């Protein structure tokens, strides 16, 4: 992030990082701050500035076991760390360094004065009280400590300010979250503090939505709503609330009750800066109902919180409804409206900024918490991960999200991310860092993250370990041997730093490293078992159909009777226990009462079949019911050769990055571009995650161009497709006719290939309409 010892924090436009000159001496020796005194203005200082000094003292004590004294007087000797803000020229008779001047809101300056031997002074000067807190965060991220020792490896001199004014994260206290609902107010305060240390200036609560009673909540919703407001006020962090209407606003009784709930919330919150109303997701009300409702909210909000304003997203609005909102804004110019929010299923950010009058702000609402079926799915994710880690698996993706941030930030006034738990903690940090400085180096941010949360002794290695976890997800898992290397690296770190075993961020990394390796070993093992089962089926004519199926099932069931890597399985279970105890992460519905299978319940899916064992069990039952041996053998032969249709033929499992050899090579497969979501695989959520369908039917993609070469020009060919709907195929640009009119996923759509199209030995496939593909064969008849 911004203020590491490397030259980062190149902030917005004309705000540049520069080293202070003038009265501050230059030194290269490290500074011993072990016995430092924190000097403050005293009770005259604003609350947030006092909080900044408290944060500094408490975080140093946690790490070094040393409690720095805090004084409103200048000490007679020893190191000094000054925490102040505003345009003061002196503090307790000492001149603030001339270069330590910063005026941009929330900016801070750090100046190191080593002019007196043995009495170094580190000045932290905020442009405002909030800037003082961010300056403290910058210093904390760069300090090196051990028990009984605190050092600054070199004098730190900089001036910096944030590029974007809105930098925040949603931390909703509701049952749907996979961890937040287990927190008390002290855990919330620590997390909000941690986010502020990395530059976040707002959080968003979910105070009213999701009326289910969580089995984990230590406080009532209303108590926590108020306490979060109090914490934000103490830290001078903006307090937002996300408040949808999940019913028809024509229902006057429910509308009145919701308005009453809002007013009660507003009265109970000592601080409230913004109310965000999503137009959809959830909710399904048109603008002619939404806008009057927001007017009524404003009548209750602004008298109680005069600076607070309302925000609206256009999520799931039709084009006509979007236009209605703009016409309302342009006609009435509401003063209660702060701006619009762009979230999942919203119109494009660029178009929104273009249409929205300049006087209104635009906030990004990026989904950083989900891996699939979401706004920014991880590019070309292997299906084995999609089936096991699922939608809310532990997902440190700093490189990917750094790119996502920078792609959209220039259109906005900042972001407040969508998060449903702590599994995306690294992603929150990279968004905060890039919101402060869009050019912040990703590895530098990860080193600061690891230094602050894990300690300087493992900072570099842990940062590389986090980046390695992201690389575990790049490309076909079966070919990614680096997954085992990543596990070895984290095992080495666990031996090196056993004192971190109770650190929940450390536990997250260890769990992902073990989980990834286990999934890969199972993928390879179970793929081999399916190959062996198919080899058994090849002898079905000699064995008899029923006996062949019995033998094939015995082979497939070795995944259960002779499981691979039980050591990894046991370690995953123990780490899930650790995370539930340390931070309330609910990785299982039954074991930890997660709110649902899709909500981070990765332990429940750790053994989900990574071959077609379940589908084959069901198919074999159907085969046994056939009336003749010949019919049984014919069906078993089709099953056996499903993915290996023979010489001169080809098979592609569309969306499975490890089984798509005929996609057009010009496609940027694996590119980390955020504008390519239409080219990413989709993984439908069926049967609560426990679908027994063939794996290739659980992975789709909108028709990518495909090419075949070296075809036999004398042979007859057919294109065969599986899809949940009828597809539109073009062969070398010519529309093809299917032999099937009505289709389901289990039915084959077949397209004869005119012989003249393969005279050159090549064939190109393109697709029209909503051709949602599961599998494509080119069959040489």
What does this structure look like?
The chain is 36% helix and 15% strand. It folds into 4 domains: 130 residues, Chitobiase/beta-hexosaminidase domain 2-like (Chitobiase, domain 2, 2-Layer Sandwich); 274 residues, TIM Barrel (Alpha-Beta Barrel); 169 residues, no CATH class; 104 residues, Jelly Rolls (Sandwich). About 3% of the residues have low confidence. The longest helix has 34 residues. By secondary structure, the chain is α/β, with parallel strands linked by helices. The N and C termini lie far apart (60 Å). Helix 5 runs parallel beside helix 6, helix 15 packs antiparallel against helix 17 and helix 15 packs antiparallel against helix 19.
Features:
single chain; 781 residues; alpha/beta; Chitobiase, domain 2; TIM Barrel; 4 domains; eight-stranded parallel sheet; six-stranded mixed sheet
SS elements, strand count = 29
Shape descriptor reads: globular
Structural class: alpha/beta
Question: In CATH terms, what is the architecture of the largest domain?
Answer: Alpha-Beta Barrel
What spatial order of strands do you see in the largest sheet? 18-17-16-15-14-13-12-19
Share of residues in strands:
5-15%
Helical proportion, percent range = 25-40%
Rounded to an integer, what's the Rg over CA atoms?
30 Å
- Tally the helices: 22
């Amino acid at each position: 992030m911004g203020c590491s010892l490397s030259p980062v924090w190149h902030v917005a436009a004309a705000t540049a990082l520069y080293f202070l000159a003038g009265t501050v001496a230059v030194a290269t020796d490290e500074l011993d701050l072990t016995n430092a005194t924190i000097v403050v203005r005293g009770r005259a200082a604003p609350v947030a500035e006092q909080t900044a000094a408290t944060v500094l003292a408490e975080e140093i004590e946690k790490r070094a076991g040393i409690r720095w004294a805090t004084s409103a007087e200048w000490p007679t000797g020893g190191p000094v760390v000054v925490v102040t803000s505003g345009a003061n020229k002196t503090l307790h008779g000492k001149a603030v360094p001339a270069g330590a001047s910063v005026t941009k809101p929330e900016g801070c300056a750090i100046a190191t004065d080593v002019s007196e031997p043995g009495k170094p002074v580190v000045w932290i000067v905020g442009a405002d009280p909030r800037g003082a807190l961010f300056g403290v965060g910058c210093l904390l991220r760069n300090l090196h400590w051990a028990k009984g020792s605190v050092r600054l490896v070199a004098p730190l001199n900089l001036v910096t300010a944030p590029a974007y004014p809105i930098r925040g994260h949603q931390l909703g206290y509701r049952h749907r979250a996979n961890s937040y609902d287990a927190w008390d107010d002290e855990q919330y305060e620590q997390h909000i503090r941690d986010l502020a240390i990395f530059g976040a200036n707002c959080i968003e609560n979910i105070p009213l939505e999701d009326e289910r009673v969580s089995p984990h909540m230590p406080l009532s919703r209303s108590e926590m709503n108020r306490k979060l407001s109090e914490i934000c006020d103490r830290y001078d962090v903006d307090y937002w609330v996300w408040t949808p209407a999940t019913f028809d606003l024509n229902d006057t009784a429910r509308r009145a009750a919701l308005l009453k709930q809002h007013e009660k919330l507003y009265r109970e919150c000592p601080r409230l800066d913004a109310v965000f109303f999503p137009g959809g997701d959830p909710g399904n009300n048109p603008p002619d109902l939404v806008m009057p409702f927001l007017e009524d909210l404003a009548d209750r909000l602004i008298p109680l919180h005069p600076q607070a304003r309302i925000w609206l997203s256009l999520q799931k609005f039709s084009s006509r409804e979007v236009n209605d909102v703009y016409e309302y804004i342009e006609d009435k110019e509401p003063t209660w409206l702060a701006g619009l929010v762009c979230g999942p299923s919203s119109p494009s950010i660029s178009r929104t900024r273009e249409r929205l009058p300049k006087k209104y702000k635009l906030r990004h609402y990026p989904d950083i918490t989900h891996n699939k079926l979401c706004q920014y799915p991880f590019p070309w994710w292997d299906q084995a991960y999609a089936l096991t880690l699922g939608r809310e698996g532990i997902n440190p993706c700093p490189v990917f999200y750094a790119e996502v941030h920078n792609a959209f930030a220039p259109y906005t006034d900042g972001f407040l991310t969508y998060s449903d738990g702590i599994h995306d903690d690294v992603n929150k940090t990279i968004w905060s860092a890039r919101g402060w400085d869009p050019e912040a180096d990703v590895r530098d941010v990860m080193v600061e993250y690891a230094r602050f949360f894990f300690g300087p002794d493992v900072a570099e290695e842990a940062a590389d370990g986090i980046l390695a976890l992201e690389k575990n997800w790049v490309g076909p898992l079966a070919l990614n041997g680096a997954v085992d290397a990543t596990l070895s690296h984290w095992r080495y770190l666990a031996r090196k730093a056993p004192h971190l075993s109770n650190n929940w961020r450390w536990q997250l990394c260890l769990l992902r490293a073990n989980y990834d390796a286990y999934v890969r070993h199972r993928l390879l093992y179970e793929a081999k078992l399916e190959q062996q089962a198919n080899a058994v089926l090849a002898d079905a004519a000699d064995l008899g159909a029923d006996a062949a199926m019995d033998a094939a099932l015995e082979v497939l069931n070795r995944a259960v009777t002779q499981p691979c890597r039980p050591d990894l399985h046991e370690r995953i279970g123990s780490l899930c226990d650790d995370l539930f105890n340390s931070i309330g992460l609910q990785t299982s519905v039954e074991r930890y009462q997660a709110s649902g299978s899709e909500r981070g319940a990765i332990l429940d899916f750790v053994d989900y079949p990574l071959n077609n064992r379940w589908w084959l069990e069901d198919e074999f039952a159907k085969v046994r019911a056939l009336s003749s041996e010949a019919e049984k053998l014919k069906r078993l032969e089709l099953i056996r050769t499903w993915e290996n249709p023979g010489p001169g033929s080809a098979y592609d499992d569309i969306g499975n990055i490890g089984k798509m050899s005929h996609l057009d090579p010009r496609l940027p497969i694996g590119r980390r571009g955020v504008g390519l979501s239409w080219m990413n695989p989709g993984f439908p959520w069926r049967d609560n995650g426990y679908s027994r369908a063939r794996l290739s039917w659980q992975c789709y993609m909108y028709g990518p161009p495909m090419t075949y070469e070296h075809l036999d020009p004398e042979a007859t060919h057919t294109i065969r497709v599986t899809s949940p709907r009828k597809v539109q195929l073009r062969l070398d640009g010519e529309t093809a006719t299917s032999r099937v009119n009505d289709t389901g996923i289990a039915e084959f759509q077949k397209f004869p290939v005119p012989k003249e199209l393969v005279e050159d030995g090549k064939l190109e496939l393109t697709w029209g309409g909503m051709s949602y593909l599961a599998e494509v064969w080119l069959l040489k008849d």
